[in-house]
Design a protein that fits this description.
It is a single chain. This protein is mainly alpha-helical. Helices cover 69% and strands 4% of the residues. A two-stranded antiparallel sheet has the order 1-2.
């Protein structure tokens, strides 16, 4: 029997983090665009933003096709396409960030899309997803019984004894 532990604090935190991100990121982007414009001029700044967008669009097209082929190959061979799905998600998010005008979002977008840096981003993504999925699930075995509340999950690397019961 598996029980899900709900963390109320984390549910309340998401709207605030999203609001903060929607306020801070555009403000930082605008400040950086103005600063770069003061350093190199308005037209060169606009040209740089357009070149970044064109390079990003080309890179998204190339890496998206490569990721799609890898995903199709994994599915056709019967393997679980976890790495390919992670790469597809990173290319999708990176492409969205590259279409957003600005230097900071382009930097993060290139980090997600470039084949050299994507494994680092994939590792972070997999860690976050694993913590979210497994962090709130506790299996109850001999340590807990009906009516007893299970202990919260231990830190990474700890073994939690339990059993799987099919219904």
């Amino acid at each position: 029997m598996a029980q899900r532990v709900t963390r109320v604090g984390s549910r309340r935190r998401w709207p605030w983090l999203l609001t903060l991100a929607l306020l801070v990121v555009p403000t930082a982007e605008l400040a950086l665009i103005i600063w770069v414009g003061q350093q190199i001029g308005g037209w060169p700044t606009l040209g740089l933003l357009l070149v970044e967008s064109a390079l990003g669009a080309w890179l998204v097209k190339r890496e998206g096709a490569r990721t799609w082929r890898a995903l199709a190959g994994a599915l056709n061979s019967g393997r679980m396409p976890s790495r390919q799905l992670s790469d597809a998600a990173l290319v999708l998010v990176g492409g969205t960030l590259l279409l957003t005008p600005g230097f900071l979002t382009d930097l993060v977008g290139f980090f997600f899309i470039l084949p050299i840096t994507r494994p680092l981003a994939r590792g972070v993504l997999e860690t976050v997803v694993t913590r979210k999925l497994l962090g709130g699930i506790v299996t109850v075995g001999r340590a807990g019984g009906p009516g007893r509340r299970p202990n919260p999950p231990s830190g990474p690397g700890d073994v939690i004894e339990g059993e799987i019961v099919d219904r």
